[in-house]
Design brief:
The structure is a homodimer of 144-residue chains. Chain A has helices at residues 3-13, 20-31, 38-42, 49-61, 106-116, 132-143, and strands at residues 65-69, 75-79, 88-91, 97-99, 119-130. By secondary structure, chain A is an alpha+beta fold. The structure holds zinc ion (ZN) (4 copies). The structure holds a DNA duplex (30 and 30 nucleotides).
Chain lengths: 144, 144
DNA sequence: CGTCTCGGTGAGACTAAGTATCACTTGGAG
DNA sequence: CTCCAAGTGATACTTAGTCTCACCGAGACG
């Protein structure tokens, strides 16, 4: 089963129609690498502006894509293999993204709940750094 | 020394002028409670739109205000008593904000650096929940 | 078969949160 | 006092998205 089919089924399962426009948006998304903006999708044609936004929102809601907050505070999207809550490390050099398997701060949050008096219910966490490839590349450059 | 004076000194120390417009923006900021948007400041008059934005950016850069990413992804600002890196817990009911003393995920990040191969250099973390007051209020309602 | 309905669509207007431009003003060093 | 870089503000522009509304079309119903 192709990715497009799998996503189509997921949509249908929730009572959404799989229209040509939506198929076009999904196809465009599947061609992106790492992460993309809605603007990247708009260049692909096949669905109007409003529909692209609506489709992205829909896909976000059903967990097919996830949102990535970049260091410059702009919002990108990314195909999510894991449907559930997770976090990313974004390479600030090449943009490569690594999904983290599970929520890395579940323990910390539990501690904080008792320390602050807040009942902590949600959080937003993004991590930024340099991936191993970019690090070895810059080491090579330094070494001449 | 008033807060306004303290901030003025901080600006001057970094080679920025303390102009009437900036004073007006700072005064407006000091009147806000918890957190605010740039729009909240615009209603105060005393500086043009562009200047309000420029001043907020400046104050963010020198650590006088910090940015708070709300659950709806909108960006708010908040006077920062601690100049250094820290995080917040935002009450999703009443909007109250609690600053966390130090970075709560420093340990987690260290672990991740070795686990992922990324050299993690930065992060963005916001926490959302219900403050103790809002929790006891809702308990009271439930109890009738 | 007709036709009704309702989810979906697209053009385009609108909004929110800023940034860019550029002529003008002004604080303060010399 | 003079001068100029820093700062200002009106306004145009941008980015990322939502809203509106007439229209389309697939399927349920008769
Ligand atoms: Zn990289
Ligand atoms: Zn998490
Ligand atoms: Zn509260
Ligand atoms: Zn931190």
């Amino acid at each position: 089963m192709s990715d497009l089919e799998a996503i189509s089924l997921k949509l249908e399962a929730r009572g959404h129609r799989v229209t040509p426009s939506r198929r076009a948006v999904i196809a465009a998304i599947l061609q992106q690498s790492e992460h993309f903006t809605v603007d990247d999708l708009l260049s692909y044609q096949g669905a109007g502006r409003a529909t692209v936004f609506r489709t992205i929102r829909l896909l976000t809601e059903i967990g097919v894509v996830c949102r990535v907050l970049m260091e410059d505070a702009s919002l990108h999207y990314r195909v999510s293999e894991r449907g559930k809550h997770h976090h990313h490390v974004v390479c600030s050099d090449c943009g490569r993204v690594q999904d983290l398997d599970q929520c890395v701060i579940a323990d910390v949050m539990r501690e904080l709940s008792s320390a602050t008096g807040f009942e902590i219910e949600g959080h937003w966490l993004e991590l930024y750094g340099k991936c191993s490839q970019c690090r070895s590349r810059s080491r090579a450059v330094l070494a001449g």
